[in-house]
Specification:
Layout lengths: L1 E2 L3 H16 L13 E6 L4 H17 L4 E6 H5 L1 H5 L4 E6 L6 H13 L27 E3 L2 E4 L14 E3 L7 E9 L10 H5 L3 E2 L2 H13 L4 E6 L15 H11 L4 E4 L9 H9 L6 E3 L7 H7 L5 H14 L4 E8 L6 H12 L5 E6 L17 H24 L5 E9 L4 E6 L4 E5 L7 E9 L4 E8 L10
Parallel strand pairs: 1-2, 2-3, 3-4, 4-6, 8-10, 10-11, 12-13, 13-14, 17-19
Antiparallel strand pairs: 5-6, 7-8, 8-9, 15-16, 15-18, 16-17, 18-19
Helix pairs in contact: 1-5, 7-8
Length: 473
Amino acid sequence: MQSFGCRATQADGAALDRQLAAQGLNPANSALEADLVVLNTCTVTAAADQDARASIRRIHRDNPDAKIMVTGCYAQRAPQEIAALPGVTWVVGNSHKHQVAEIAAQARFRDQFPSEEYAAPQGEAQAGPPQNFVSLETVSLSAPAFTLVGDIFAHTELIAAPVFSGETVGEKTRPNLKVQDGCDNRCSFCIIPSVRGQSRSMPLERVIAEANALVEAGYREIVLSGINLGRWGRDFQPQQRFEQLLRALLEHTGIEKVRISSVEPMDWSDDLIALVAGSPRIARHAHVPLQSGSDRILRRMHRKYRPWHYAEKIRKVREAMPDAAIGADVMVGFPGETDEFFAESRSFIEHLPFTYLHVFTYSSRPGTPSATMPDQVPVHVARERNRVLRELAAEKNLEFRKKFVGKTLDVITLQNRDQESTEALSDNYLTVSLAGQHAANTWMRATILSVESEGLGGVATEKAGPPDRVGAI
């Protein structure tokens, strides 16, 4: 099982791992040793598609006997393109991703019992296919691969399981818990609604149960994620709000720290800002997608806010949390982005208190409105603009990190980098290299001694207890 792309895709992959295990399929050590390889793909950029194709070709070359099943966003968007690749046996779109494990189990049983009718030997228990057997009559043959792709907007399933950071079993920390999928926005550059469908939320009771299971297993910080996380609960009747989910997690679970992955600017309500600022059990971290600081470009992108609205949200976050991490996604090279509009965007970003940026170069996606817009920006121009914003982001991040030299920060340890240091993460999203080796998933109090190339350096002076549980509820 291999997953590509965002936190949501990783969460889907973790759920598929869980479902495959429930069907009795054991994970192989590598694709070279596998009988079946499941690739859970991303399609947010052309590079993501290319990575998936390269992986398919590599697996087929190195293990030609393995059956390859491709699922995920790329499979939903371009199933015939994937089906034509040598080595691919199945293409299963997001519309039927919840059936991947059943299809894999069916393949196993067909290999074991090739006849259509299976009768157990006398005196033995029935060992045929599982009850939820997927009929191949519902699968269309597109040589050489079967494809199973339907209307994503009729899709109501939400599959997800926690995804862990850390490189070894003993160092798994900070699980990502996907609680929302799909998106009802229609940004002109984005293919995601077409491959993930409408916004849908994990029921509150299931979120609480998943979080409590993680607490029971010993995890101390969880990261809430989703395709459009701030819309959690809007599909319920009656509607619920993301703030209600956070309050329920604080009240009904023992999780010591909740981190919010990304929330659109429209959903950073005054109530949400106050809740994050007021509870020591919610990380002081606001990731607020921007895309562009130019009003003209935002309108062409079909984004639902104007630059001044966005700036007001960011300033409210900074006023409520002076030391919070504040980050944004920014796109360069969108069609129609002239030098003037880019300069406008850069100036807007420069004057806001960001502590980091994720800068992306526009990638045309077939089927999106922006793919056919005039005034496409040359690739070399877009790449240069990407470099300019990354340099600005580095300056802002360095300025932010310097503020903490000589101070103490509560951090959670992640993994040992080497024999001499341990990587840890602060409440406000700063990477700290602690001298010495420390066990993963442990709260420490770090005295910051230096600024390093991408983080901070410090020593752990004492173990910090869990964050104060008397927070804003």
